[in-house]
Amino acid sequence: MNYTTKQLADVTKSQLIGDGGLQVTTISFDSRTLYSSADTAFIAINTQKNSGEKYIQAAVEKGIKIIISEHQVAGLKDITWIIVENSLRFIQQLAKHHLSLFNLKTVGITGSNGKTIVKEWLYQSLFTDFNTVKSPKSFNSQLGLPLSLLKIDGNHEVGIFEVGISKPGEMEILEDIFPPKIGVLTHIGSAHSSNFVDEEELTEEKIKLFKHSKTIIFNGDNDLVYNKINKIYSCKNLISYGLKHRNDTTITNDPNDKSEPLQIRYFKDEFQLPAQQRDEATLTNALCVVAVLKEFGFNFKQIVDKINTLKSVEMRLESVNGLRNNLIINDSFNLDLDSLKIAYQFIKEYNKPKKTLILTDIVEGKNAAQLYGEVVKITNQQDFSKIILIGDEIINYQNDFKAETYTFNNVNELIDSHILNQIESELILLKGARKFEIEKIKNHLELQKHDTVLEVNLNAILHNINVHKALLKPETKMMAMVKAYSYGLGGYEIAEFLQHHHIDYLGVAYADEGVDLRKNGITAPIMVMNPEQHSYNIIIDYNLEPEIYSFRVLELFTQQLAQKGIQEKYPIHIKLETGMHRLGFKEDELNELTEKLKHLNVKVASIFSHLSIADVPEGKDYTLEQIEIFKKNSDNLISGLHYQPIRHILNTSGIVHYSDYQFDMVRIGIGMVGISSSEKIKKQLQGAVSFKTVISQISTVNAGESIGYNRNYRTKNSTQIATIPVGYADGIPRLIGNEVGKVGIAKKLFPIVGNVCMDMMMINIGDAAAKEGDEVIIFNSNPSLEEFSNYCKTIPYEVLTSISRRVKRIYIKN
Predict the structure, then answer these.
(1) Is the model's pLDDT at 735 over the cut of 70?
(2) Cis omega (within 30 of 0) for bond into 531
(3) Residues 6+ positions from 227 with CB-CB distance below 8 Å
(4) Exposed, middle or buried by CB within 10 Å (0-12, 13-18, 19+), for 557?
(5) pTM across the whole model
(6) Count of alpha carbons within 13 angstroms of residue 110, beta-carbon side
(7) Contact, 812 vs 456, CB < 8 A?
(8) Is 811 a catalytic residue?
(9) Among residues 477, 483, 692, 813, which one is catalytic?
(10) In this structure, are residues 246 and 225 in contact, taking their beta carbons and an 8 Å threshold?
(11) How far apart are CA 764 and CA 452, in angstroms?
């Protein structure tokens, strides 16, 4: 996009205050991830839960000179304002106008699953033949779709855009903005279904996108979808695809027989398609691509050639610890201009003062000089200390980069140069096209290499937090519990991400956990729930806030404040005993406590208590009794203090079942991971943790032979035994051996046999077609964390906190 501020105001009938001649090529809605201020406007998006106007000051401090908002903020100088009636509607109106300026062949993709994969595969198939624009990542929402449409320019011939909804009424708004010429419906499933009465309502809402489409390409394996589309849109060009033979695009032979190529039928014509990966999702998505490519006029030979060159789509950035105290951000899964911008936004979340960029040629269908001119422009605004370029094209622009720049023809040259060994205590961003094998650089830089890893999806954590926030009032604060190494997920890595997303408080169990967070740049308020007597010094030194649960603790802590000469009132948190019978002040102690607090050098930051049975429906009466005791006793304490501390009693289960009693703040713990005691809420959550390893060896074992130590298990038949490199030293309890527990391989569950060893365990895989090096899921979705916890006869908390520190944590952001 390229508009003046006056044009933006005129198109949307908004009020312009300031310079009407300023150029706007980018609109940003997140002050935290601004990667450039040049020709950029910041739009303050207001929602029911939050106001973007709170972050206008932060955007201005990063150099933004153009603000789009519903209100003008006083006291900001040299700012051009575009005052709008509704900030979200503004961006939608602008996108609708922008799309109308171009004669683009548009593909709109909706559905529950597979949207992003199909979009990326279509883009890979089309961009060499047409100048093609697409949604970046999964930008498909009421805000994301308009921002995607604004990327269209006069050179583009084809536009491929995802369209996503989460509740009724949203699709009509998006269809008004973007009526695609070719509509694509992928699989309809449970994703985002919690706000719909049933699958029929969800389907009816999704297919409203196709109201003005000439062609509809849809997954016809679902009977409801098949019948609904054929009934409502019978007058349109309908093309169904799927594994059922009734579809217009389908597979006519056995897809599981890998000795034969797939036999594809498109209406009455047939052709062969070689394919190694034959899971249901991959095959269905490939059939969708076939149908769309036929609409673009490609013949079967061209389609086979294009599908054979498709690359798997990895929608993630991973962060891993590197040698010499470096942090490696690996985004080597795909590379185009949009994904480069997103990577630059992502690294804003980290506190490393120095940054190095490793960047390869970009394989994209546009003029090289224009493309690399844009790359240079946005890269020069990121303050990299070093830039390392790899390839034939990008090195021609080395003199245009401001940072110290090195060039190499390939990855091996770079590794052999030893330049990487000179980088210390920096963030290193790896951004490369797949053909350059940039994974070799990650392996060279990585601190430790293990087949067994715990993957933590940061976006899923944020999603789960927002699901719980949706149950709260906008003004209610939230404390994230990051004690016990963030429930085993990692300490400061989780805290840093949460701090970046404006969490109000962090909670740790012991002072040394809080100290570690402070040393790693965490500045958010941190409550210490178990302040040991010897830790008072470091609590004060590192500005941590202790839980005070007894007169003894209060006296010892205030004595330490006096010894250190602390003059200002120090924040503390008062714990009340309401029925947990663990720690806290009781009702008969409150008068004495109030009097003491008046004369001590402390200020009560919060008053809180713990619910003991909020996750059990049968415990409702007891929980309400606890809440009533808390309200009564905290009211008593506040009346004596003559000021209003924050009050909080709800944990994750409390948020879900007792949101009427949210007071001023709530605490979330296991809910961040995707665990809930409410079936309704559980459907909305995303699994945030995946514990996985690989098969080390597969052996054939005869019937009656024993497996592992003590010979506690003997095979019933001749079978295959897979050994995997994970054991009780990694956090796997011995009790799940001998067919108690199971692991997942290729989406099927197989029993653990023999005794679990310290570093290994054995899996009976029968006659499964597995091979050494194949991935093994300890838990994520199959088995789930809850299922694995049941094997262990415990709860997810214990499973997660038992995972050894020697298991490498990898942090993923989709």
Answers:
(1) yes
(2) no
(3) none
(4) buried
(5) 0.71
(6) 29
(7) yes
(8) no
(9) 483
(10) no
(11) 19
